[in-house]
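User: Just a sanity check before I run the rest of the batch. Below are the structure tokens for the first item. I only need the designed sequence back.
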């Protein structure tokens, strides 16, 4: 046996657990202060006998608590000791101290009005585990409600407490008003004094509904007996108000649209579980916490796999569409590129790395087809007129009377009409001079005069004809 020695004051050494490569690990016992929760039952017990009803209740609670503690469960409160106080003879139960709020307080300010889906699922899983644990050892809780579940802020676990009602027999419960569970959480059959494992299952369903919507499905609206009766009746015969609508109406104002949308996606399996828990007839619910827990575990796993598969398939489909689209656009881009390359070849454009763009050589000018056609037609017309005026030199008739050609006529472009061309005028002038000379001869003088008049007439006509012929 290993040597036992003192480590430090207040820390008792209970012996080595294991010796490893870097030292030994010992079991220690801290002797310092330890926090516990002590529940005192209000009715004194004077005789520890079966005859004393209070003693019987107390003893039963302790027995049940010890039973559910035989095997530890992280979601069921641990009992440490129990007894009767030295002064006042009050029965007490000492439990582990759970540092944190009651579940119902988690829906109060400054917390959000409803739980997130993630937290509801965590709670659903842990609380179903606690119920399964109790029902397995034959303990029905009987008072499942949101202020009998504590949140351990240190571990983040939800812990089921208050096994006070678990101690009563059905007969005792029937006659005990004091011990009646919170009416808003009670299963329909509990109002007849009947408590079944399915009753816990029903109350569990109410808790989940409350966490998802911020309120129980049938809230108590007053303190009077009428209000209580209304709630009782609603549990017995009214359909449960639509959970999704109630959740949508209770969405916290500080949640943005994206979060609200996300938080409205209550998994179908969870809705189905709650629906089954809240059946009016106990036989339509899960027979006990065991089946409830199993269903939650298998459903959430299946849902996870389903979600994953569905998500993968959806992602795959999305990527495939993307690939198709990219391939299509790449083919189109290639086509465009080839066309562009052809165009650059045609226009002699080249890539200027300094400008970072394609440019045309400066020697080339880009003109529109219309302008080009106009220019070509104009050039052709010009050439035609030029040729006409160049090659079709008309000789003036010999009878022509020399005329004075205005300078403006010479300034006209070659294709524009002139009275006569230069050579023909010279020729006409020479001919006229010759005729004048001949006329000076007396013989011919008489005949020349009328001929001259005729020639002048003819020349005028020709001049007019030529002018009209050009235009
Ligand atoms: N183990 C515990 N640790 C811390 N607080 C506790 C513990 N047990 C009970 N409480 C607190 O005391 C309150 C009453 O305890 P409970 O067992 O529910 O008694 P009652 O029968 O009066 O409802 C609980 O709502 C909880 O806030
Ligand atoms: Mg309580």
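Assistant: Here's the designed sequence for the first item:
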């Amino acid at each position: 046996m290993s040597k036992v020695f003192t480590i430090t004051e207040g820390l008792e050494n209970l012996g080595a657990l294991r010796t490893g490569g870097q030292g030994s690990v010992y079991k220690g016992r801290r002797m310092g202060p330890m926090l516990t929760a002590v529940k005192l039952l209000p009715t004194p017990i004077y005789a520890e006998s079966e005859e004393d009803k209070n003693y019987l209740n107390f003893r039963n609670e302790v027995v049940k608590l010890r039973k559910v503690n035989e095997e530890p469960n992280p979601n069921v409160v641990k009992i440490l000791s129990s007894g009767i106080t030295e002064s006042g003879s009050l029965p007490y139960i000492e439990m582990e101290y759970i540092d944190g709020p009651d579940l119902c307080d988690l829906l109060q300010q400054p917390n959000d009005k409803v739980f997130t889906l993630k937290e509801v699922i965590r709670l659903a899983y842990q609380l179903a585990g606690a119920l399964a644990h109790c029902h397995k050892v034959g303990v029905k809780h009987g008072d499942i409600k949101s202020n009998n579940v504590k949140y351990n802020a240190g571990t983040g676990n939800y812990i089921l407490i208050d096994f006070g009602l678990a101690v009563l027999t059905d007969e005792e419960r029937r006659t005990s008003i004091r011990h009646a569970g919170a009416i808003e959480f009670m299963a329909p059959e509990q109002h007849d004094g009947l408590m079944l494992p399915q009753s816990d299952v029903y109350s569990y369903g109410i808790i989940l509904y409350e966490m998802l919507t911020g309120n129980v499905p049938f809230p108590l609206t007053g303190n009077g007996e009428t209000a209580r009766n209304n709630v009782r009746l609603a549990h017995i015969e009214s359909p449960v108000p639509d959970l999704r609508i109630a959740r949508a109406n209770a969405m916290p104002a500080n949640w943005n649209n994206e979060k609200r949308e996300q938080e409205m996606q209550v998994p179908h399996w969870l809705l189905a579980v709650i629906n089954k828990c809240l059946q009016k007839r106990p036989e339509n619910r899960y027979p006990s916490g065991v089946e409830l827990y199993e269903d939650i575990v298998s459903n959430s796993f299946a849902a996870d796999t389903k979600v994953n598969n569905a998500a993968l398939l959806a992602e795959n489909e999305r990527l495939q569409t993307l690939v198709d689209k990219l391939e299509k656009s790449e083919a189109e881009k290639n086509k465009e590129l080839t066309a562009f390359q052809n165009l650059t070849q045609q226009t002699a454009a080249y890539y200027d790395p300094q400008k970072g763009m394609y440019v045309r050589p400066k020697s080339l000018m880009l003109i529109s087809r219309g302008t080009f056609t106009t220019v070509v037609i104009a050039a052709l017309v010009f050439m035609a007129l030029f040729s006409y005026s160049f090659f079709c030199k008309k000789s003036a008739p010999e009878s022509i009377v020399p005329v004075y050609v205005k300078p403006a006529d010479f300034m006209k472009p070659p294709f524009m009409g002139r009275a006569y061309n230069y050579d023909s005028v010279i020729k006409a002038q020479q001919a006229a001079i010759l005729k004048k000379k001949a006329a000076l001869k007396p013989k011919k003088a008489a005949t020349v005069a009328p001929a001259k008049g005729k020639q002048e007439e003819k020349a005028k006509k020709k001049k007019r004809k030529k002018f009209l012929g050009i235009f």
